[in-house]
Write a structure and sequence with these properties.
single chain; mainly beta; five-stranded mixed beta sheet; 1 helix; 62% strand; DUF2283; DUF2283 domain-containing protein
Length: 123
């Protein structure tokens, strides 16, 4: 069963090249870092935010392009051993939209319960 969160804010810091998608009304418990992709976890084990470090490098876009995000979506599959994240970002560039995707896999070191979760933001 897919548990889905609609985040309503994002913040891109051009200096540190990090982006943070957030906006949940859930109460924060802790974070888990999967090689520069940081998931904020609520007290009830929902993913309530995602921060991506070195985002321009990870998504292969310029820092300037990250000022025109139109859509972000993440599908998070949590198993007993691993957390797999598939992300898609849609950016406006020149006369059209470009899509960029990124997948990552890390250990479920916080022993989060098995689930499939999603986060989406439309700008």
């Amino acid at each position: 069963m897919l548990q889905s969160s609609q985040v309503n804010k994002y913040d891109y810091d051009i200096q540190s090249d990090s982006i943070f998608f957030y906006g949940s009304d859930k109460k924060y418990r802790s974070s888990i870092d999967l090689d520069g992709i940081i998931l904020d976890v609520s007290e009830d084990d929902y993913i309530m935010g995602i921060e991506i470090l070195d985002v321009s490098e990870k998504f292969n876009v310029s820092k300037m392009d990250l000022s025109s995000i139109k859509h972000f979506e993440a599908n998070i599959e949590i198993s007993k051993e691993n957390i797999k994240i598939s992300m898609e970002m849609r950016l406006f560039k020149r006369n059209g939209l470009i899509n960029r995707c990124l997948d990552t896999l890390g250990l479920n070191s916080m022993n989060l319960p098995v689930s499939t979760q999603g986060i989406a933001l439309n700008c």
